[in-house]
Design brief:
127 residues, mainly alpha
Length: 127
Amino acid sequence: MTREPEEELELTSALVPLFVITNGRSLPPEHAYERTTLVSASEDAFASARTLSPEARQVLDLVKDGFLSVAEVAAHTRLPLGIVRILLAQMEDNGLIVARKPVPRAERVDREVLSAVLDGLKARFGA
């Protein structure tokens, strides 16, 4: 009688409610991660990786080699964006990850300055 190998149960399946993954926590207001916020593992993150949940460990493995955006982390882990934000906030509070805010959009340039530059280029090089 041969036993078929049991399939490994995926911890992020529909059998595990999402609030269990985050331990019922919500996103603290000081951690408003945007989709483009970049996250990376801190240098001493792997010393305490054994005590992490499987989902947090998966996030840490994803960002160990460099920066990934919050949206990329959510896509790779197949977790909702809100859950990933809560996990990242917990991990940042524990010093496991470093978050880099996205570069702010450039301020609008004065149209008069651009028009003057264009006029100067036209006068200099003819157009």
